[in-house]
Amino acid sequence: MKKKKLSISDVARATGVSVTTVSLVLNDKGVGRISPGIIRKVKDYAKKVGYMPNPLVRKRNANTSRVFGVLVEDIASSVQSEFVSHLGKIMRQRGHHIVIVSMDGETAAGERLLLLLQEKEMDGYVLMGFEHVERALRRIVDAKKPVVLYDCQSAGLNLPTYSTDHRSAVVDAIHKHFRTHPNSRLGMIAYSSNTSRIREVLAGYMQVMDLHSHDVLIKKLPATLNDAEIENQIDGFVRDNRLDAVLFATEQLARIGARIIKKAQILTWEQDTRSIAENMTESLLKQFRR
189-210: per-residue pLDDT in tens? Predict the structure, then answer.
């Protein structure tokens, strides 16, 4: 009688783990996600019984539909909503899909939300910046998962990074404002955050204010405040400084501010999200072809 060829399910049953775990281990994708003991147990058993992953299956899987986790700072932001809309359409055109998770402006929650995506075993990730992002990125790199960053720095990990030039966009918006309102008292309101986007927006604001010899008026708010508390802080800042115009570092703050600011002008700046989404998609899929 011809001996039955072992399947991946046989290896999983014999070692007491899932088929997914066996696949990750034997395709060298388990480091950082599976304990060293389990990796050793699965590899030792596979070697003992002579089981090897089917190379034809592995080749086919390289062309199958993939699911990517997308972590954005605030999905209610028109810019970020537009970005994920472009990204989703481009991915679907190529036979892939995205799962979107929003921090809702709470960048301190980013690491926890990313862990939720990782538990769903995404094929790759698109990430915006959040607190302690470097630690989270190292886990993804160790797990050998493709990742691209949007408005986020990779702390020397040499990861593909795409971003809007927020500093230049803010500089252009303020220059345009001062051309028609040269004596305007312009304030900046931002979250107390170290994300690259916040830093760029603040740097652009201070650059132009110094150039025009205007007072630098900045209000930094803790991300833990609720909407009512943010409204009170904005109202007090605008009144106390007799502001004619306000530049918000995030759209979430701008939406809240628009509810209470009656006289001061709210400045905005443009961002090209479609080209960023196209470049990100190509970068992610390219990592599977290496």
Answer: 999 987 777 888 999 999 999 9
